[in-house]
Task: structure prediction
Amino acid sequence: MTTVLDVQRFKDEGRRFAMLTAYDYLTAQILEEAGIPILLVGDSLGMVVLGYPTTLPVTLDEMVHHAKAVARGSRQALLVGDLPFMSYHESVEQAIRSAGRFLHEAGMHAVKLEGGGRIIEYTSRLASLGIPVMGHLGLTPQFVHQMGGFKVQGRGDAQAERILDDAKALEQAGAFSLVLEGVPSELAGRVTKTLRIPTIGIGAGGQTDGQVLVIHDLLGMTTGKAPRFVKRYANLAETIAKAAETYADEVAKGVFPGPEHTYSANGVTKMPIAREEVKYGAG
Ligand code: KIV
Result:
């Protein structure tokens, strides 16, 4: 199983690594079989799966529900639960309770928190309790209203210095890794060279130790134009639409179901694929 020590080793040995988001059992299983070492149950769940306009409405209960499903599909990956908005904002005690649910109830191995400032103290407390913390700086979606939208961060000198200082403080506080989102590549490179712990970039160029993408972006299971930092490795939205259209058309024409998909009373018609052969759950 991938552990936080392995992730550090990846950096120490100069091995670049991939992280992907996962929100359900089957996706976790497929990604794990594909050898993805870290799965993040991101609060992007709110936007890509639940249809919220931002990540702010996502609740801890929703996150825990999906995290449990991911844990059921995974044996080898390091599983990181993303603490959603208002699940750690009130106090360090609330952060401990919420992070504890991810490890205790949902089978996660680590948590992610957005931001610097007070999060540094939270990181230190969580790490001291044996709860590994992944930091997250730069474009932090839970700060969308303060940032005035989803905008690249750290372009000016002052902002860049603040991100670098927060990164150093998070490492000092015991974070085992750091997501850098939506920052200039040069800044991501500077942070990566300065830190001992691995950095994981999204929209942060190619100089970080690891990369992360939202699985729906990677699969092209989104509508509209992809942002610049996204590479679509498949176009599943189109594939799904085409399959659904073909199915509806065949139903309308009476082509589906054909004899090969039909049971007969005398048992002469064979079912080539019985339902029992399809694996649906973890049992
Ligand atoms: O919620 C999420 O998916 C994330 C990644 C984009 C890093 O935080």
User: Anything to note?
Assistant: The two ends are 21 Å apart (CA to CA). The pocket of 3-methyl-2-oxobutanoic acid is lined by residues 21, 40, 42-44, 82, 179, 181, 202, 212, 214 (CB under 6 Å).
